[in-house]
Amino acid sequence: MIQQEQQQQEAKVFFSRHLLEWYQREKRDLPWRRHRNPYYIWISEIMLQQTRVDTVIPYFHRFIERFPTVESLADAPEEDVLKCWEGLGYYSRARNIQHAAKQVKELYGGQVPDDRDAVFGLKGVGPYTAGAILSIAFNRPEPAVDGNVMRVLSRYFLIRDDIAKGPTRVKMEGLVRELIPEGEASSFNQALMELGALVCTPKSPRCLTCPVMEHCAGRLAGCETELPVKTKAKPPRPEERLAALVEGRGAHAGRVLIRQRPSSGLLARMWELPHWPAPPAEGGAPRTPLPEAAAQDRLRRSLQSAGISARPEGHWMAAEHVFSHIVWTLQVYRCREEEALPLAAEGRAVYGAAAAEAAAGGALLPDGSAPVELFDDGSGDPADRGAVRWINRADMANYAFPNVFLKLLNSYFDEQEQAGQE
Ligand code: SF4
Hints:
The protein has helices at 2-26, 38-48, 53-66, 70-75, 78-85, 91-108, 116-120, 127-138, 147-156, 166-179, 185-198, 217-220, 292-305, 344-361, 403-421, and strands spanning 237-247, 256-260, 271-272, 275-277, 310-322, 326-337, 388-391.
């Protein structure tokens, strides 16, 4: 027993020493590693969640150029922050960062605090990000344990606990506290992350080049690829939706209609093409693609409910937007504006009024059909319906779109430009 404990202790010492030496030799030159600026480290850590380093680098440069300090981020219009984040996904992260920047400005004079409780109190900062900021920027001996780190530790120490469970994370955090060499928290935590990113990768760990292979218990037991143990999350629920690409005419010729989402809920305040859930098939079976005529009819009524007079003219394309809990399959129809709608300033009034009236009064539409909800995801007060705009390609720079709509709009304007050249 004593011998076992001794071996375990040796394996820990070996791990810390060899990992650090390897990191000093092999670490990548990443923009946020060139400074110990806690603001930069915080932004990079939030951006890196669920996103690859190569993708993050250009976003990081743009973000820091546009918002070089905590104050500049706190004082910026939310629209600008979302625009800078556009394409990175998980937009609540961007909103939380700005909220937290305001906290830092108001409570800590614009300086990211070197204090555990204060960092934990910032919006959107969980145990991993707090640990990363405190250790990397301030060299505090705090663990920063994410999925990559848990993978490395599960393999090296042959831990079979389910990493999807909270107590496993707590156990791993305790282990990291033991492993951090004195005065080396910043480099050690980054080294762990680096090993997970470059060597101890999810599918094919490169054990032969690994600096800690000699004592890796998972490797020695031949089960490194079975680790970590992780129970599968529930798959996201599929949802079929009908979307309208409304092409303007007259004063709106060359433009398409976009709407802003409500100020809370899914993709809050972002811009999109109008869309609604496809109705259930007969007998309440799960939603599947509707026959084209039924889909167009449904879409026409949805547009009408929203105060948008437009006629669907045919299916254009399908697109997917994946959230953690839901997958939208958007069947996008090209629609033609039937009579000119008021311009931007009045857009909200017209768009909102028709919908609010229909939603509140349960009134029937002119064709006798029941109105549909403008937004159908429980996103609040019918008065909070955002705005609509008619935009051309150049206007896209002024609005923040979720990826799927960015791609759809770019495809549409590409097609229009090509058609114009022929
Ligand atoms: S030896 Fe292989 S499994 Fe073990 S830590 Fe290194 S890369 Fe991961």
